Amino acid sequence: MKNISNLDDLLSLNNQIIKSRKNYFTGIGLTLLGTAIITIGTLINPEHDSIMLATMTAGVVIALIGLVKLCMPSNRLIYAGTGEQLKKIDIYYDSEYDGAMIENIHDCTFDKLKKLAHSRGSKKLATVYSTPSGKIRIAQIFNFVPYEYEPKTEPMVIIA
Known about the structure:
Structural class: alpha+beta
Radius of gyration: 24 Å
Strand content: 25-35%
Number of helices: 5
Low-confidence stretches: none
Oligomer: single chain
Number of strands: 8
């Protein structure tokens, strides 16, 4: 097999693509707020059990939302040239559309790309990262080899 570089390696080594870091302050803040509401709920007079139950339930829900925000990955890829977020599109298609797929990637005609798409069982995969304005497109085509997709082409970087 040819020694073809991988799209993920290109994205990690390219100094124009920035992987934005996750902001932990929201998750920590919600968890602390939920804990504070639970504590306030325990201080409420037991005669007002419905208010106590409501505040403690709200506190638990808010704390759980905070914990989920802390655990969820949220790294985004940002193109440094424009500050726009790169969106990933996976397009599965059949071999007969190889030439049209490469041509449409270069022309940035995503409507045509999506028309070429077929089911996930297709033998070809085109992975395209693009900004909403179309200033940059990074794409690579993969062939299905039993149990995985292997790169067929070098990553294509098209800067408008």
